[in-house]
Amino acid sequence: KIAQVKKDIARVKTIIRQNQLEQ
Q1: Which pTM does this prediction carry?
Q2: CA–CA separation, 2 vs 20, rounded Å?
Q3: Which CA distances in Å does 17 have to 3, 6, 9, 13?
Q4: How far apart are CA 15 and CA 18, in angstroms?
Q5: Each residue's pLDDT tens digit, 1-23
Q6: Rounded distance between C-alpha atoms, residue 2 and residue 21, angstroms
Q7: Distance of CA 8 to the CA centre of its chain
Q8: How far apart are CA 11 and CA 23, in angstroms?
Q9: How far from 3 is each of 7, 15, 18, 23, CA to CA, in Å?
Q10: Measured between alpha carbons, how far is 5 from 1 in angstroms, rounded to an integer?
């Protein structure tokens, strides 16, 4: 479902943002 995909994308974006802050 699209809603679940959006949740996964948001989760990935937050993880990427955290990784960029650490580097």
Answers
A1: 0.53
A2: 27
A3: 21, 16, 12, 6
A4: 5
A5: 899 999 999 999 999 999 998 87
A6: 29
A7: 6
A8: 19
A9: 6, 19, 23, 31
A10: 7
